[in-house]
């Protein structure tokens, strides 16, 4: 599979997350507090909760249901109750558009 356009970068505000599904994989596209765009698995590893509905602060996203925070760069949980990482996907920004290939993940 090749990278797919998910949206324009300007459509996501700073400290905002948006859920997309590519190739059947739910992905949270997140613009962190510094304005950098990230893509991580959208399902909290502690429970079946969408991370894109959570809270973005600095370079982490917090699950609204149980409070686990995940690094947007590594996918690793930063606190309990989650202890398993979420996948992190490579993001390309081309001419102001965000592209993600759901078959390529970064090592956790």
UniProtKB/TrEMBL annotation:
Classification via InterPro entries: Rieske_2Fe-2S, Rieske_2Fe-2S_sf
GO molecular function: 2 iron, 2 sulfur cluster binding; metal ion binding; monooxygenase activity; oxidoreductase activity, acting on paired donors, with incorporation or reduction of molecular oxygen
PROSITE patterns: RIESKE
Span of domain Rieske: 4-100
Keywords annotated in UniProt: 2Fe-2S, Iron, Iron-sulfur, Metal-binding
Pfam families membership: Rieske (PF00355)
Domain of life: Bacteria
UniProt keyword Metal-binding, yes or no: yes
PANTHER family noted in UniProt: 3-PHENYLPROPIONATE_CINNAMIC ACID DIOXYGENASE FERREDOXIN SUBUNIT (PTHR21496:SF23), FERREDOXIN-RELATED (PTHR21496)
Name assigned to this protein: Non-heme iron oxygenase ferredoxin subunit
Taxonomic classification: Bacteria, Bacillati, Actinomycetota, Actinomycetes, Micrococcales
């Amino acid at each position: 599979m090749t990278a797919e356009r998910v949206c324009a970068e300007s459509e996501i505000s700073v400290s905002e997350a948006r859920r997309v599904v590519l190739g059947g994989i739910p992905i949270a596209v997140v613009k962190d507090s510094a304005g950098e765009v990230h893509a991580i698995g959208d399902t909290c590893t502690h429970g079946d909760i969408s991370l894109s509905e959570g809270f973005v602060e600095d370079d982490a996203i917090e699950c609204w249901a149980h409070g686990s925070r995940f690094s947007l760069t590594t996918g690793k949980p930063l606190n309990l109750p989650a202890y398993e990482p979420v996948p992190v996907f490579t993001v390309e920004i081309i001419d102001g558009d965000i592209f993600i290939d759901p078959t390529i993940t970064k090592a956790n």
